[in-house]
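Board work, copied verbatim: TonB-dependent receptor
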Amino acid sequence: MLTQLSLRHLTLLGTSLLGSAFVLMTDESRAATTQSVPVQHKQAHTTPVAKKTTKAAPRQVARPTLEVSGGSEAVVVTGTREFGKKARDSIAPVDIVTNRQLTGTGQPTLRDSLALLLPSLTVPTGGFDAGALTDSISLRGLNPNETLVLVDGKRRHTTANIYADAGPSQGSTPVDIDMIPMSMIDHIEVLRDGASAQYGSDAIAGVVNIILKKQNHGLTMRSNTGITSEGDGFQQGVFIDGGANLNNRGFVHIGGDFVHQDHTVRSGADNRTNTYVNQLLGQPEQTRESVAINAGYDITDNVQAYASATYAHRHAESYQNYRLPSSLAKYPGYSAIYPYGYAPIEELNENDYELTAGFRGTLAGWHWDVSSVFGRDYDAVNAQSTTNVGLYAATGQTPTSFAAQAYNDTQWTNSVDLSRKFRTSFWPYAINVAGGASYRYEAYAIGTGSPASYTYSSSDGFPGTNPANAGKWSRDVAAGYLDISTNLMKHWQLDLAGRVEHYTDVGNTKTGKVSTRYDFSPRFAIRGTFSNGFHAPTLAQEHYSALSVSPTAASGIIAASSAGALANGASALKPESSTSAEGGIIVEPIKKLHVTVDVYQIDLRDRIMPGGTIYGSQAYQALQADNYNLPPGSGNWTGSQLATHWFANVANTRTQGLDLTANYPTDFGRYGHADWDVAINLNRTRLRHQTNSMTGAPLLNAQNIAYITTAYPRSKIIFGGTWRSAHNKWAVSVHEIRYGETTSQLTYYTGPYTYSTSHFLQFQNVPKWTTNASVTYNITPKWSATIGGNNIFAKFPSVVPEGNRYLGVPKYYMSTSQLGMNGGYYYLDVSARF
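↓ predict structure ↓
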């Protein structure tokens, strides 16, 4: 799989110990496949409109550009404001992942496909509650909020479903990339570089730019069927897309996905029953339908109209902890309904859409682009198969299904971008100037649950939102940027970028970036980048509040501005800020062997994570002040059973890492061809400073510190090769992935430190090796079939000690981003291209 990932992709380089950085890059040895490069990818500029030479000649703007390699020869748009820049010549490190590489992983979801291809990209080990129902990605061991996602160069809206559960992703409202149909993705450009000055807030760890298909012809159909090594988690995906020519003046491309995933169950035995009736731990069930359309049309020789739209609906269900039959002993009517007890189900119904429209072209030598993007994600979260026993005691009845919570995230971005290349008499090299301005409206809303979900003792397992914690909040963001690039010498490039932004809730910010590159020869180059970044607190981080209730415990997040939080030392959130340096070298020591070694350092200040946790009676009073209805008897729960916290600027951290890639092709003549590759990411985050609350108490404990510093793997290595027969009838791919160690601080649930908030068990999730393999047979020039497996020897994360599992159930620790808990996955993939 990684073979096709093209290791001459430009890789992000940074320096960790030196205050300056170099970066270098070169071409990749062999293209994995040919892909259509879109006409326009970048927010800041557009591809110029080509004038017709004859009446019959199709216009270049409206049709796909020439087929080119998906590797280093591909024209990239991420990380540069220039036109026609190839990946191997770019001043910024860019990885290119083609559609063929994505489908070659055998995964039906984009997130899991990327995780098998990019060492610097990680996904959560597992999940529970609502956090398991949104697919998030992380770059460089930072929170998903620090990665900016673009679609065709335009900022993508984020999910409304905040990851509220404990772990390294807590507090994130990332872009859910799986709501974009995989069938519509041409390729993905991953800029592993701090790029806030170029693209704005969120681009601290890097940028993922998803390029939609723009082919004006053809039809592609694909079916993917798979199951886990444990015999559960059946998955089925169907993917269809095709393009049409609009009178040689434009194109339209339409595609859609249908993906279904069954539950997996990886729970240990429940120590209350010594059975496996509690199915908390595992993959949620979900069904997702998504469609997209992308179109462009030449209005004149110099003006093109373009538009795209995506829509996705997802239904997902996640199990909560099992409730014993004895919990309903006082309620005979409901004991009859649940004679064997019950497990509440958290149900998500999500609707996500985005509309993009704009015009681009050339005027007096300037390339211009005017666009508007409107996106919205709406989540209705229900509690199913549960009760409100307090309501039953008061009225003699209770529903078993509740409309509990609802969230809405809206983003509307309008932008104007200009660029032009100047040549002057006083400077021997061309100067590329780009600039622009944007206005963005953001809104976030929390809806009230049904009265039965929040009155009395609330819906068990997943309480509804009460009116006091519901509301709608919004802000405006205005920005302007300037980017200038030129050569200082024939082989020495320089790029300067600056950006100013104004947020109506958190004020002003200024960011800058300096990048340079020097090519000593076609086989050796260096480059470096120094930049500062900015990430504004999300509206969800500022205003979200919710409570999670288990059989004998409850924990919640309250808004930093709420009465309960303010009474315990909370203060208004500040933006995160960063300083980044990247640098490295790339060499071709022998012909066709391409090696890159890159380092980076990111200093991140005022990191936003939950902090200031309060316990027991103090937590009870804070939750009561915020109008939460707690289960009967909870006023007497201990500090280990009842806790709450809020989002705060908790710490300053330093992240240092190294990327190494190597690629080498081998030609066996009539016996075919093989591509060999290796890619390594080493990553470490250290705590540099911890913040205290206004009462003087530290905002983090040892468990929270571990989420920030050691929950992401210290290393991730991908290596292997792909062989193809001489006539391309057969292809065999084998790759190894090594996931490095993660370290967690586990709560004690038995023993002398039971439910302790100050004593934890240090737990190492030791390194794991997995093997991915596939065999492809091209039945005809149009039809192909692949049988394969990921993690074919069914490796699992390290098993958590019995005394550190709540109720004995979570046998693997979910709050890390190492190896997934599903075990092996085996699939059959059949595709046709017409």
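The chain has a mean pLDDT of 86.
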